[in-house]
Every structure is written in C-alpha cells, then in structure tokens.
C-alpha cells in the first residue's frame, strides 16, 4: 500500500489551506469530500477561476489577507510549497504545534495507488512527462500530478487512478513526513533555491533525499551515480529500497548504462533486458539520455514491454518552455528554454547545441554561482543579451568570456537585438538561469513572450 496510516493527522475537524493555487484548491476539495470544516486563506489575490471553484464547492475562503484567528484554530494545515518557513505566520503555527503538511502528504492518506515520485534540480518535468506518456501508452490507468498538471489532491478526490507519476520539488518534500514513494527517482542535485536553505548545500541535499523516506525493501530508488552531490550524500542515508543507478560513465550490472555501441541498456533482476540506440531517442542531448534512463527504469519496474518503451522513447515530444524549438528564421534556430531557472539548467541547454549561440540570460537572481558556465560560455556563446532589471552580476561573470554582452529593455527588444547578432547557422537561446518575476508573472509568460517576439520577426 502506498498510502500512509490514517492515524498520523486528524481525520476530521478544521482544515485550513494556506495558498489557493492549483494544489491548495485541490486539497480544499479533497478535505471537503472527507468531511473536514475547510477554510482557504491566501495572502495574494486568488485567481478568478480558483475563486469560482471554491464558490461552486461551497468552501469558505479569504483573498488578499491572512486572518490569524481563523487560521490558528486549525486541527491540520496544508500549506502551499511557495510559503517559506521564515514567514511570521508559519512560525506562529509551528509554535502552536499544529500539523503543517504539503498537499501531497495530505492526499496520500486517501489513495492506495502506486506512487512514482520524481525529484531533482533539473529534468524533473521532462522525466515526469515522459514517464507518464510511457505508462499511458502501455495502457496503465495513470495520473500525472505534483508540480505539473492537475492537483494530486483533486485527482485523489474526483478521479480513480491505479498509478500516479508525481513531480516533486524540494519545497514539497520539506512538508512531507509519513508519505512513501513506491518508486523514488532522484535525477541530480545542483545548487538551487539556496536562499530557502540558509545558503547551505547540505540542507538542500537533505531536502532532496526526503524522497526516499519511509521506503521499504519492496520499493525502488532510482538515482544518478554520475552525480557528484548524490553520490557524496548516499552514505549518510539508510536506504532500504532496491537501488537502481543510472550512468553514462560506467557499466553497471543492475540499473541503466550506455554500452560501447551507444545503446541505452536497462537491466533489472527478473525483467527482460532493454536496449535502444540513443540516436533513436526523440529527446536528444546528454541530459536527455539521463531523463530517458530514469523513465526507462520506472517502466521496467512497472514491467512494461520493450516494444512499448521503444515506441514511447522514440515518439515523445518535449514539454513547452524546456528546450522548445520555436522557429527557424533566416537559417537561425530559435529555442525557448524559459523553464531554465537555475545555472545547471543553462549548462544542460548550452551542452545541447553547437556554437554559435546568442544567449538570453537574466531575471531575478537567486544567488547564482555562474562559475560552472564560464568554460561552456567561452566555447559556445558569441553574445549574451541580458533580460530583467538587475544585470550587473551577469556582466561581472561573463564580460571577459564573450565579445558582446548587452542589456535589453524588454523581451521584444532582446529578440530584435538577437536577430541582428545571429548569423545563418547560429542558435538564439532563451535560457535565463533566473526566476522571472521582475518582468513576468512566471516562466511560462516569459517563454510565451519570447515565442511571440520571435514569430513577429
């Protein structure tokens, strides 16, 4: 059983939801269905679509404020992963000893479905979508949730899936305690969101490893044995699940690796061995080989047929805003990688294309260390166009590495500049390494504006 025993949290009484986005509204509906007295509170303005959903369900809510008297009387609280621990209200709730959990933790109590949980600093969305695509192609009754798609809680309340593929962020994991993944996938760990972890890498690593908590000998842990931080941390954890490494550097007897013919090999005890040439994968690039390895290992755990896996890996189309091909104009390739909100994602993006690259970089800097990009930028990037309000750190990091580094006034302006700098055979790449909310609502809007500007050329 994947679910957690119902004794950990109150099963009736007052349920308060902090944050009325996709996960919060889903948790509210599940709570209502389970007989809780539900109240939703959001310090920001709740989107009209979510307000309507709450009204239709007859769930009480407040928008643009937190009324503490209506929150501190909760029996259990589900909090949005975006609310940091240092928020004054969260400190008060901790002091009051009220259980404060994530939507995933709350919803897991109410399902016996098999839970496949995918985390990592980079590649989560692609691997989650590819895994879901593969399992769906195989005819499984499978849901997609977590950081992606419809809320897990809403699907537990109103749908009936046998398996869920969940994209799980470190922020979600921080509020998960008794939850158990049948299959845990840890793709990689590189510095990200360190502002939420007291700028200590170890705290962030510990958060990622929460994906394996409560696993038993009947479960599976898929991880990258080429990833330095993951391998360094492994000895600190008591891992009970079957460990399935993936590597492009070695040959492993159990797990996933590349052979001398450039075939992706997947070998799990009591399963048919899988082999596929990496040139046949629909997602190309070294980072995508890891994503396919992870999804392939999940598929093998689920006992999918090799033919189904091959068809899926050969036909999958990537998600929007992640190395998304936008257009080919005047011999120039335009690529939207707006989802690259950290330095390591940009490293993967640069690694995926040949020189010469015109790179659109910048936004809200989360304490980025640009050192790891210097060599690749030197080798592959002919110009950097800075987007966002504060560009000083990008100038400091790269002015010695590229001949051209300029600021832009808007996304339209950035794309216009890029189109003049790029020659036939070049790539214009939006891969910002930063959060988007100085100029945009989110990375999706940033990516859409980029696509609009490209199509207007």
Can you describe this structure?
- There is one protein chain.
- The protein is globular and about 65 Å long.
- The protein is built from 17 helices and 20 strands.
- Helices cover 34% and strands 21% of the residues.
- By secondary structure, it is α/β, with parallel strands linked by helices.
- The strands form four sheets. The protein has a six-stranded parallel sheet with strand order 7-8-6-9-10-11, with helices on one face. A six-stranded mixed sheet has the order 15-16-20-17-18-19, with helices on both faces. The protein has a five-stranded parallel sheet with strand order 3-2-1-4-5.
- It has three domains: 14-101, Rossmann fold (3-Layer(aba) Sandwich); 106-315, UDP-N-acetylmuramoyl-L-alanine:D-glutamate ligase (3-Layer(aba) Sandwich), CATH 3.40.1190.10; 324-455, Mur ligase, C-terminal domain (Protein-Tyrosine Phosphatase, Chain A, Alpha-Beta Complex), CATH 3.90.190.
Summed up, the helix count is 17
Number of domains: 3
Characterize the biggest β-sheet: 6 strands, parallel
According to CATH, the fold-level topology of the largest domain is UDP-N-acetylmuramoyl-L-alanine:D-glutamate ligase
Would you tell me the structural class of the helices and strands? alpha/beta
Report how far the terminal alpha carbons are from each other: 55 Å
Average of per-residue pLDDT values: 91
- Oligomeric grouping of the chains: single chain
**Global morphology:** globular
| Gyration radius over CA | 23 Å
Number of strands: 20
Instruction: State the name of the first-level CATH class of the largest domain.
Output: Alpha Beta
Q: What is the correct CATH architecture of the largest domain?
A: 3-Layer(aba) Sandwich
Runs in which pLDDT lies below 50 for 5 or more consecutive residues are none
Output the CATH homologous superfamily of the largest domain: Mur-like, catalytic domain
Helix content: 25-40%
GO cellular component, one term: cytoplasm
Function: Cell wall formation. Catalyzes the addition of glutamate to the nucleotide precursor UDP-N-acetylmuramoyl-L-alanine (UMA).
Keywords: ATP-binding, Cell cycle, Cell division, Cell shape, Cell wall biogenesis/degradation, Cytoplasm, Ligase, Nucleotide-binding, Peptidoglycan synthesis
Catalytic activity: UDP-N-acetyl-alpha-D-muramoyl-L-alanine + D-glutamate + ATP = UDP-N-acetyl-alpha-D-muramoyl-L-alanyl-D-glutamate + ADP + phosphate + H(+)
């Amino acid at each position: 059983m994947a679910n957690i025993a119902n004794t950990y949290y109150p099963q009736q009484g007052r349920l308060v939801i902090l944050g009325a986005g996709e996960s919060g509204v889903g948790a509210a509906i599940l709570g209502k269905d389970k007989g809780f007295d539900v109240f939703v509170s959001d310090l920001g303005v709740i989107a009209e679509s979510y307000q309507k959903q709450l009204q239709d369900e007859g769930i009480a809510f407040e928008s643009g404020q937190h009324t503490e008297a209506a929150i501190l009387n909760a029996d259990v609280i589900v909090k949005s992963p975006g609310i940091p621990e240092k928020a004054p209200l969260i400190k008060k709730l901790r002091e009051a000893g009220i259980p404060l959990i994530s939507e995933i933790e709350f919803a897991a109590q109410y399902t016996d479905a098999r839970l496949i949980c995918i985390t990592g600093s980079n590649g989560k969305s692609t691997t989650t979508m590819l895994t879901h695509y593969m399992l769906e192609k195989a005819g499984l009754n499978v849901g997609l949730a977590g950081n992606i798609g419809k809320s897990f809680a809403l699907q537990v309340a109103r749908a009936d899936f046998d398996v869920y593929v969940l994209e799980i962020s470190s922020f979600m994991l921080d509020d998960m305690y008794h939850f158990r993944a049948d299959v845990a996938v840890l793709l990689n760990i590189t510095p990200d969101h360190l502002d939420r972890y007291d700028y200590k890498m170890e705290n962030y690593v510990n958060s990622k490893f929460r994906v394996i908590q409560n696993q038993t000998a009947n479960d599976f842990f898929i991880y990258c044995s080429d990833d330095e931080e993951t391998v360094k941390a492994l000895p600190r954890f008591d891992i009970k699940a079957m460990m399935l490494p993936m590597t492009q550097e070695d040959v492993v007897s159990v797990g996933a690796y590349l052979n001398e013919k450039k075939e992706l090999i997947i070998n799990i005890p009591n399963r048919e061995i899988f082999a596929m040439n990496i040139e046949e994968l629909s997602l190309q690039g070294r980072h995508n080989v890891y994503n396919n390895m992870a999804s392939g290992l999940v598929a093998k755990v689920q006992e999918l047929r090799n033919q189904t896996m091959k068809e899926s890996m050969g036909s999958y189309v990537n998600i929007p805003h992640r190395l998304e091909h936008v257009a080919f104009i005047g011999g120039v390739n335009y690529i939207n990688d707006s989802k690259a909100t950290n330095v390591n994602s940009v490293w993967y993006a640069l690694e995926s294309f040949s020189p010469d690259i015109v790179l659109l970089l910048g936004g809200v800097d989360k304490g980025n260390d640009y050192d790891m990009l210097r060599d690749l930028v030197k080798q592959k990037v002919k110009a950097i166009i800075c987007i966002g309000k504060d560009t000083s750190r990008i100038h400091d990091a790269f002015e010695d590495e590229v001949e051209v580094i300029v600021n832009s006034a808007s996304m339209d302006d950035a794309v216009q500049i890029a189109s003049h700098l790029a020659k036939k055979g070049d790539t214009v790449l939006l891969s910002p390494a930063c959060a988007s909310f100085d100029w945009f609502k989110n990375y999706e809007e940033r990516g859409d504006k980029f696509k609009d500007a490209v199509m207007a050329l």
